[in-house]
Every structure is written in structure tokens, then in C-alpha cells.
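Input record (one chain):
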Amino acid sequence: MTSTDKNARAAWATLTHDSLNNGHVGKRTLTGVQFFFLNFGLLLGNVLVLFNTGAFASVVLHATGDLGVSPSHASWMQTYYFISLALSLPVSSWLANAVGEVRLYLWSMIAMTLASLLCAMTGDLFWFLSGRALQGFFGGLTIPLSQTLLMREYPESSKSFAVSLWSIAALTPFTLGPAAGGWIADHLGWRWLFYLNGPLPLLAAALVWALLFDRQSPQKKMPFDRVGFVLLTGALVCLQTVLNQGQDADWFNSNGLIAVALAGLLMLAYFIVWELAEPSPLLDLRLFARRNFAIGSVMLSVSFMLMYGLLSVLLVRLQVVAGYTSFLAGSALLPLVFLAKPVASVMHRIVHRFDARLLVSLNMLLFALYCTWTSRYDFFGRGGWFTQTLWAQVLEGLCLGALFVPLTTLFLSGLTPRRQAQAVELGGMLRVLGGSVASPLLSVFWERRAAFHQSRLIENFSLHDGGSGDIIARLHAAGLHGQLANAKLAGMAGQHAAILGLDDTFRLTAWLFLGLAAVVWIADPVKPKPPVTVKEDSRQAALEELMEEP
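The corresponding structure, as predicted from the sequence alone:
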């Protein structure tokens, strides 16, 4: 057994995995009312952390406008949140062992509250980004803790119900989050999204502390790869900064961006070498030597990147180009809720009855169908903003619900329980990083395609063309002449180019999903093998649910 296996510092899964059956012998048993409030407090905390992912996506333009920065800064406010959340995962179990799980949960919630208030009150971009980064880091620490603390209070016979209850919040960022965040921004103001993060996390922390104050686990000294953590942090921040600022700074025509990119790549290379030689590494990169883990984790990261990127691009473009309110833009995603969670629940039950490669491939094909279908709609038609996309969004909800479980099963296949814990940590981190690059990458593609279509539309516009002449005649009839008519024509061309650019973005992702549907068959077969015991079933379900957390 390697030193890595002995230490078992998997940030998500070790806490959950090793604690599924670790009861608190000699501690008081919670009464019915106390048990209810414990469930309420832990679920509330989990919902608040995840709500900051999806709800903010629909109000980000309000934030950029109020802070006095361009809409291109919108992706910064999401990506640094994702980066910080990803960095919290490798340190969560080390901190839990150092200060105790209940104390860590309490202090993380307090820190997240302070970070939210900083975001709510600041008028400076730097401090706002700092608050978002702190939100992501301390919120990320609570994700595995909430599941661990909840499941320890359930008897063995009810642990599967505990997993299902805890997972209710897993898909809210993509379903209810955007609409709820948009309603808050339209009716209360976007800063109230962060003001509400003041009392509610404190309520969750107070309930957990009051009910579990005697559940403090003994503190343990565990090795922590500080050098690896610093190298990884530096590499991710540098590379994400290049991605965020590339479009505005003209990419590698900027000497500053070139220097930052080189620094990030050097730190990433040093991190990989360091981790492979370190006896107690921050992340077990040797897992990539296993074919199923390499294919499954990369596919999970890429598919999540495409899915989240499409949602982010769509939410922003509906508001910028079509003039939707934040609530209307977020409501376009509400049909996701119809099938997302029900399908996820079904997948947990049937995934071990089929070859996981088959389920993954079918889901990627359905994603490709959704992207192709969506690319044929006019999102900016005022007459049917909801009905046009209803069934396509229902299909995406089905795909979303079936995304995580089969891929998690694929890359966990053939691993021992401890290695599964480390695999969930690394795979989960890669998935979160996929979310951090999603919006900038697809936004760049959309902007380039929109610019291309706009230039073609202008080139083909001619007064000698019947259609163009009709447009000019209608503008004159409306009282627009000269510069006013030219400005109106430019606006119409820009809007139409935006539609075509968005269609191209969806078509690109459709082809990429088709490629993923084929790549999965390179993996080794995952034979149907249902869990033998209830304990094993609960453990596997807990690992799969953790992978659904953004």
C-alpha cells in the first residue's frame, strides 16, 4: 500500500466514505425536532453554497453595470469563484482533521457570510472578485462536510434516504437558481443576492453548532503538501487570468499575458513533476495511468464545461441582445427541473445493471440532439420566448440528470475503496475547473462567429437588392433617415449576427458531444455489477452524489 493510500486525504470522498458508518458512541441521540432542524440546517447550507453558482449567472450583467465595468468582466466573477471552489477540495479533509469537522463547518459558514457581505457592499471590482473567491473557497469546504455530518446521524437502514435528501440541492444551480436569482435582481436589486447570504448561512451554522457541539472528532496530524498547493494555486490563477483577459488584451499580442501564461505553464509543469515524486501528494496524478479514470474524468470535465458554458452564454446573450429581464432569461431554464432530478434518481438505481459506456454514449448523443435542436430556434423572437425552447430544455434536463452517475461509475471502476476516494477528489476538481473555463471559451467563440456573420451581412447588403430596399423603405416610413437609418441597420445586423453566432456555438458543441459519444468506447468495459450490501450501496450512492455538486 502506498503512502498516498495510507493517508487517504481525499477531500470529498474520504470524509463521506470513511464516515458512513462511524457513529458517535456515547453521545446523545437527537430527538425528532432536533433531527428535523439538523436536516434543515445542513440542507440550507448546501443550497446556499450551490445557489451562488447558478443564481449569479443570471444577474452578472447587473453586477458589471453597477461596478462600472464592461460586460466582458462578467466571466471573471464566475471563473474565480470556480477556481477557489476547486482549490478548496484538496484541503478540506486536512482542515477537518486539524480543527474538527463541526468547527470547520461553523467557521466556513461565518467566512462565507463575511465574503458575501463584502460582495454586497463593495463598489470596486478587485474587492468584489476577492469576495467571490472567498465565497467559493469557504463554500467549497462545506460541501463534503454537510454530507458527512448529515449521514452520521442516520441509522444504517436510512442512509440511502439521507443521500437522496442531501442530493436535492445538487441540481438547483441549473434549474431553479437562474430564475430565482433573476427575480431577486429585478425586484430587490442584485446586491440582495449577497445580502441574503448574510443571515441564512449564520442560521445554518448556528443550528449545526447547537445540535452537534458534542460531536467534535479528535484532532489528527496529517501531512499536507503545501508546496503542491501553492504551485497548483499559482498555475490555475495565472492560466485563468489569461483566459479571462485574452479577448480584451488581444491574446498573445500582449506581452503581459504572454508572461502570465508562461508563468502558469511552468508552475503547472513543476506541479506535475512534484506530485509524481511526492510521497504524500496533494492530488494522486498516478490515477491517470488507469484508462477508465483518464477517459471518464476528462469526459466529465469537458461535458460539464460544454453544458455549463452553453447555459452561461445563453443567459447573458438573452439579456444583452434580446433585452430579456434577468428573471425571464432565468425562466427559460426552468423546464430543466421537470426531468433532471427524477432521471438522476433513476440512474442511481440502474447504472450498475448496464455497461456504463453504453449509458454515457447515449447521454452524449442526446446532448448532441439537444444542441442541434436548440440551434434551430430563434431565441430572440418576441412571440414565443418560452414555448419555442420548452421541449428542448426538457430534453436537456433529461441529459443533465443522466450526466454524472454513469461517468462517475466509469472512472471509479476497478479501483479499491481508498483509490475511489482519491479518484472522486481529483475527478470532482477537474469538473469544477471545466466550469471555470466554460464561459470564457464559448463566449470567445460566440463573439468571433457573431463578428464574422455581421461582416458578411454588411457585405451582402445592397440598395439594388429587393429585400434590402424593402428594409430601407420601412425605415423611411418610420421616420428614420440618414445617420438614424444607418444606426438602425447596424443594430439589426448586429442582432441577427448574434443569433447566427449563438446557433454556431450550439452546433459546435453538438459535434463535440458526438465526439465524446465515440471516445467513451475506448474505455475498458464496465460489467454490470450491483452492490452486494446495503452498506456498499450507500457508499457508492454517496460518492456519485458528491460528483453532482458544482
